[in-house]
Structure formats: C-alpha cells, structure tokens
Amino acid sequence: MQNLRKRNGDITLRLEGRERRERVALDEAYEFYKQLLSQGATENLHSLVNALKTVSTALEAAERGELEITVRLWRKIRQALFDQLLTGFSSHVVVITADGRVLAEKEDLPDDSTLELYPEGLKRSDDFFTAALEDLHPHTRSLLDRVWRTRGATIRKEDFQAGEKPGPEAEPESQSDSQSGGSCKDGVCALRPNSFVVGAELLSAEAKNGREKAYQEYWRLYWQSYCSPRAREKQYLVRQMASLEAVWGNLHY
Fold this sequence. Notes:
two-stranded antiparallel ribbon, elongated, 54% helix, single chain, alpha+beta
C-alpha cells in the first residue's frame, strides 16, 4: 500500500509540475463567460486569462481530433473573452503581418494581420494572447485603429471606456452582426453565439458531459500508467493526462 501511494504520488507530482497556473475547467470557463455577459465587464484579470487559456486549449484539442465540441460556438466564446481582455485591461500590442513581419508602430493595420496581446500585470512567458484582426468586433477594431495611429503599441483600458463612440471611419454594425448576437455596451463588445438560447443548451451539455468523459479517461490513463513497466509509455500516458487537465482542470479527485 505504501508503494502504491508513492507511485501514485509521483504521477500526480509530474502532472502538477506541468501546469502551475490555477486550472480552470472548460465548464467553469463557460460559467465565467455567462457571468461576463450578464455583468458586461470584469475586473479580475487572472480569472479572465485563465478562462481564455482553457477555451483556447480546448479549441486546439478539437482541431487535433482529441475533443468533440461545437467549434463554431466555442470560437465565438474565445473571441468574446479576447475582446474583453483587449478592451478591459491595459496591454502592449504587437501586430504580425501575413508575411511574418512585425508591423512598425502607427503603420496602417492590414486586415489579414494577427494581433499579439501582452496584458500588464502578467509575468509568465506564455502570458500573451493572439487573435486575427479580422475577428475583432467592428467597434473594437475601429477604436484600436485610432489608438494605434495616435499612440502606437500601448493601449489603455480608458481607450475603450463608456462614452467612447466610433469615429467617422468606424464600420456600422451590419444586419449579420446583429443576427449573430454581436453587440457593444458601455464600450465592451461581446461576440455571442448564434441564437444564444439554443447555443447555451448545447454548450452547457458539452461542458458537463465532456468533464464526465474526461474524468473517466483520466483515471483509465492513470491506472494504465501505474501498471506499465516501460518508462516511455508512462511519460506518454502522463502527457495525455496533463492534456486532459489543461482543458478540464483538476481531475485527480
């Protein structure tokens, strides 16, 4: 029994060493998103970035065929969380063009460029977030264009505060934007899932059922790793367990 505890503890320690940030499960990230919609904004930077990281990790897993989720809807949630991070907190911005060039400050922003966001107050090397410029809400894009042209790469929360109106160059919200649930309120733009009532039921079910499946898979891998005499196989299984916890939080309970 003592050896069993020791070997189980070794597996747990290896997993914890892989991910030191506070784990947020996908269902918890979804609850945070719903709370964000109801409140319109958040002051909790770390909760926001943890939710954004989890949703991004889930989408990456789905693209690899490791997770079954409705990618179209979860992408909208990721866009909304990124938009909140961009408009709600001061950050440093890096713009990467389609050919991989770092755009000089105050140059025109190409539509096909990628935005790298480095929020103030975060110190980890992986605490930056990317999004295609064309995925930003038109109102957010308009304000970002204005700040980029006048000040450059430093953006402040105040640039997106209530009372800011799109300049004459801003794009009006199209009918398709309205139908898709895109909206701006008090300077915060949320890209909500299409027909959110239906989407909410689907997303909630995916989050809940996905956690239950992940829990079962985690413990299958756990005992398979425990029983395996081969070091490489153990490492492979532990990596799979870590990937599950990157999406679903702590499954060791």
